[in-house]
Fold:
Amino acid sequence: MMRYIAALFFFFCLKQVSFATDSLKVGHAYRSTTSVKIDGVLAEADWQKAESHGGFIEFDPTQGLPPSQKTEFKIMYDNSAVYFAAICYDTSPDSILAELGNRDDFDLNADKIRLVLDPYNTRQGGYVFEVYASGVQLDWRFDDEEFDAVWMSAVKKNENGWICEMEIPYSAIRFPNDDIQKWAIQVARSIRRVREYDQWCTTPKSDANPFKYFANLEGIEKINAPLRLSLTPYVSMFADRAPEYDADGKYIYRNSSSYNMGADIKYGIDERFTVDMILLPDFGQVRSDNKIKNIGYQEITFDENRPFFRESSELFNKFGLFYSRRIANTPKGFFGVYDQLNAGEKVVSNPQQGKLINATKLSGRTNGGLGIGLLNAVIDNTYAVVENENGEKRKILTEPLQILIL
Structure:
């Protein structure tokens, strides 16, 4: 009897999953055979052949109602990119808000269209490409808000509303190496003046996983991922002229200079995994942290702004066990240098940050959605330099050589 009940329960669950899969919307992509100009006009003949998708539902402020304005979109692709066009109808085109701003600004006072692509159809996340009615771009991933890609977009207002056109090259995303692609897709539109948010695939507010309601995108076939290889060499120079008093109490200026060189390398092993390497990096261009006065006993943690450590950080930051800012951080013996000075000695240099020689990172997800991340970093010996009254210098070790494997 129990075996019969278990079998019946399993059959019921299987039917529910099948019903959930079959009930999803389906989008169709059209293969373009001619070049597409990204201008927001949609004058190409292929755009007229591509299937139009509509039937949006209001999500905010009241979920389930018909939207106040009509929205349609089309999908095309060729051997190099995916093309997306959204026709945002508006009965009052003169009232469309279109505030200008910086890229990745999440709170502009402007209408917006959103495209979400989940090429692996894992229902765990995806790439988000958004464009405001003013033309400002946003892009991010659900597991990496700092994600930035190179893609094109254009907007055009007309008497019926406004049109957004996007070109997303395959180099900006990762997808399986299959002849027939099975992606998940979501499209949404924001109408700012009435604070309305409409979705093509309705995701219940009470459900913790909205990704399972995304539509299936069909029609993309026989595309190849481009070679993902980039080399970025750099050279940096520093010069300083600072006033000081010499041994005789004379006011003089001392000149100092330094230089550094290295390279960043990124290589896509396949469509799933990427190797990132940095050699003698210089993070001088990275945004600095805000000054915070800590009078408590707990460590202050800062956001990671270094591009190498920022990418795929979600694979390494599980449960807060790894904090990348500790790599090449302030040497442990930095503050103890002054306690080791002999009579007549002064500190000439005392680096506030360890010297990162190189680092290598392997990151990606399997076809089943399992995330894998490996990280190796080498931090060189760090020394403070002190000088006595006779001009003789010596080194004080503030941090020994470190090899990190994670």
In short: The helical segments are 2-22, 45-49, 307-310. The domain at 23-218 is CATH 2.60.40.1190 (Immunoglobulin-like). The longest helix spans residues 2-22. Residues 1-21 have pLDDT under 50 and may be disordered.
